[in-house]
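subagent[fold] <- orchestrator: predict structure for attached chain, return tokens only, no commentary.
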Amino acid sequence: MRENGPVTSATGTPETPAAPKLSTALEQGGIPFVPPRLIATDLDGTLLRDDKSVSPRTVAALAAAEEAGIEVFFVTGRPARWMDVVSDHVHGHGLAICGNGAAVVDLHGSPGAHRFVKVRELARENALDAVLLLRDAAPGTVYAVEQTYGFHQEPAYPKLHMEIPDNLAPAEELLASDGPGATEPVLKILAYHPDLDPDAFLTLARLAVGDRANVTRSSPSALLELSGPGVSKASTLALCCAERGISHEEVVAFGDMPNDVEMLTWAGQSYAMGNAHPDVIAAASGRTVANNEDGVAVVIEQLLAARA
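subagent[fold] -> orchestrator:
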């Protein structure tokens, strides 16, 4: 989940490639093109421009995909309450995968009143173990707790998200069995370090936390996101596709940051944005132009042309 403010490049700005050609992007290694049945796209740095808008070209491409019978899933690290940026652009099912796979949300309701269709929580005991292990491995780490509706943070956690927390307390108190929001599922833990390199922090945290939680990042700063073991964009997307009888070969996915890697690896066709992190470029089967150049729309238009 990026900070809720201006977006900067994940890395030193990579060279932006030309629009992908069908002969290479849609038939990688001579594999025949499989008509897509579902498009899965990240939001920040991918579908959204840096000013958090959805361009008219992208709006038209999403609508055309749905009209052609291709389902569109927004798959994001954002919590449900931040989904108003795309709530006007949901069609048909109206579902989105939020919190890096921790929740499937029906966006037909208003912000704050969305219906949680599926919740894959992070057990409090796992969360507390992860907090303590990471606190030892990276002194100075501060935490916030994301729940289905609540948001709590430690006093030293910076104001990254442009919102007022429900409670201020040490993570140990926030995650106690009788702590704030004790009856509400924990979706993920946010861990911020003021000094560490973001990628180095991610590597350190994965080693320290082990199998107690899934650790990833989507922010250009040293802000990590900890979800339940095995919970990722890819695993929840796979569950949603299985419910619809859609195979991974029939999925096209888009992303730009490390929290997209599993999804891009799982999907039959996947595209790293022109502004993507190097790990994302390595994981994807194709590459499109940057988010500010409507890279998702460019590929959707080509996919639809290939079906014609």
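orchestrator: received. Logging for downstream: The chain has a mean pLDDT of 88. The first strand starts at residue 38 and ends at 41.
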